[in-house]
Amino acid sequence: MATTFSAAISRQQLKTFSILTFAICMLVLVADGMDAQLLGIVAPVVIDEFGVDRGTFGIAMSSALVGFGLGSWGGGWLGDMVGRRWSLALASLVFALGTVGASTSDDVWIMAAWRLVSGLGFGSAYANAIALAGEWLPDKWRSVGVTTLSVGTPAGGLVVASLAPTLLDAYGWRGTFVAVGIATLIVVVLIVAILRDSPSFLLARGKPDAARIAARKVLDQDVEFVTERHMTDTEAGAIGVLDASNFRLNLGIGIAFAAATMVAYGMLNWGTTFLTAKGMTLDAASYTVAVGGITSMIASIAVGLVIQRLGSRRVVAALSGSLFVTLVVFTVVLERLSGPPSASEQTLVIVLYGLSAALFSGAIASFYALMTHGYPASCRSAGIGFGIFVGRVGAIAATGLGGWLIDLGGGSLLPFFAVLCVGALLISAAAIINDRHVPPAVAAKE
What we know:
Layout: H1 5-10, H2 16-50, H3 54-82, H4 84-102, H5 108-135, H6 139-149, H7 152-194, H8 199-204, H9 208-215, H10 247-277, H11 282-310, H12 312-335, H13 343-374, H14 380-408, H15 414-426, H16 429-432, H17 441-445
């Protein structure tokens, strides 16, 4: 009997090739995080050599964000056209060479140009890695697999942060860029040698024979496949991400993703600033932000398990409401501080910051599971890329306007947190407007 590849793979145990595909995609995103966050870690050394102020150097720092947004959508579109495997390899090659190229920079503008190129690779790799890994995973592993992948980039940041001091001492900042870039080229070889486009994608592109051959890597016997019609009977064949049938998904994800990244980048980029403004020492504020990084990664993995059990609609709605309440309480606690916080007040601040980070990171991770489920195979990479692209809008807005909002309060953080609270509520758009949700485990069985 003819069936879809997703249905066929979900009737079997998790196979080695699916695990290997997931592992290589995770490795790509770890390399992505290493390359992406390297400049921020070595920035003081580079600033001293270039002889510029921090504000001017911000041009180089922010250019990767711009490239990331453009690369996520453009690279996602490329993945839907030529395949996730080759697009992922090209993206990794681009940011590897961009990182090596940045080592030749002699001023801010050359560095910014190289970081823009690298950013194109960062965004494209993210969209294609998540789409490819998700398509090779059975239903019961897909959500948790996709949300776990979202911690790859921050994990890469932790790796490069631990390695950077040693590399700087041995090779200087230029040699460090070269070493990290060359290491990424090894990942490119793994992508080309091992990964393959999924049967779901190949069927959507009208390649049944290639789909049958690819499916042998995870299925015990040949199966007659049919193209996934995905959600509605009108979605037959290849459609683009901006097709009218995707309108509610695009709108809900677009609003929610921009809102969630606005909250995330507001809290992460300006955390030490608003915490020290309220009397915490820089060391204590940095520790608080570091705790948020840890809770973010834990929540990103955990949310996939919860979505698999309860479905994405309830989980996203709960994350949105909980984040709003947490930010309101956080605002009240911070506004009551009139000097250096006591030990109990500082502990409460750390807990509230860590909880906020867990909630907004959980929300962002849930969007990847939702997009992997919601977009059909014919435009899945571009759909994920679209979400990431819109998310950059919120990230850039928070990065650029956060300081102004903090200053606007004249000692009060009410303007800053009022905007973040609105963002927390807008995350619910992914639950309310979007019409395609990962079903609860019970509903899926029925």
